[in-house]
Amino acid sequence: MERSRMESKARKIDIPIIKEPRGNLSVVEAGSTVPFEIKRVYYLYDVPGGAARGGHAHRKLQQLIIAASGSFDVVLDDGQPVAEVTGVNQRAAYLRSSRLPRWQGTSCGVL
Fold first, then answer.
1. What is the extent of the structural domain holding 62?
2. Does residue 74 sit within a domain?
3. This prediction's pTM
4. What's the domain count of the chain?
5. DSSP character for 100?
6. pLDDT 10s digits, 66-93
7. What stretch of H or E contains 8?
8. Cα–Cα distance measured from residue 95 to residue 38, given in angstroms and rounded to the nearest whole number
């Protein structure tokens, strides 16, 4: 998929990492890391390998998706050719365009 087409669906946001011997720390803040007010946070855990989540739409909201642990793939479907984001992990988040009807293959990811 061409880069401009992908960026119209979702934009990658690098999450800052503070590395220490005691463990890594990342901070996601509304207004700086996240360019919108955070109203709600959903998170998934204990999802079996190969399971699909999401597959629904939201008309008026922005979403940020981050893997708290491990990684996963996301299919972005707006009725045009789909885009696939692979290897979403703790260091990279994806901001979903408010024009994109739905995520497939992952959680709702609403912030």
1. 3-104
2. yes
3. 0.62
4. 1
5. -
6. 887 777 777 776 677 666 777 676 666 6
7. helix 3-9
8. 13
Strand partners, 63: 96, 110
Task: Using a pLDDT cut of 90, give the percent of the chain over it.
Answer: 6
Q: Choose the most confident range, by mean pLDDT, from 4-8, 26-30, 54-58.
A: 26-30
What is the identity of the amino acid at 71? Answer: S
Which residue is catalytic, options 5, 12, 39, 56? 56
Q: Is residue 111 part of a domain?
A: no
Using only C-alpha atoms, what is the Rg of the chain?
Answer: 14
Is a pLDDT exceeding 90 seen at residue 37? no
Q: Is 56 a catalytic residue?
A: yes
Does 75 fall in a domain? Answer: yes
**Average of per-residue pLDDT values in the chain:** 72
CA distance 79 to 102: 10
State the Cα–Cα distance between residues 93 and 10, nearest whole angstrom: 10
CATH of the domain at 34: 2.60.120.10
Residue 109 lies in a domain: no
Rounded to a whole number of angstroms, the distance between the first and last alpha carbons of the chain is 27
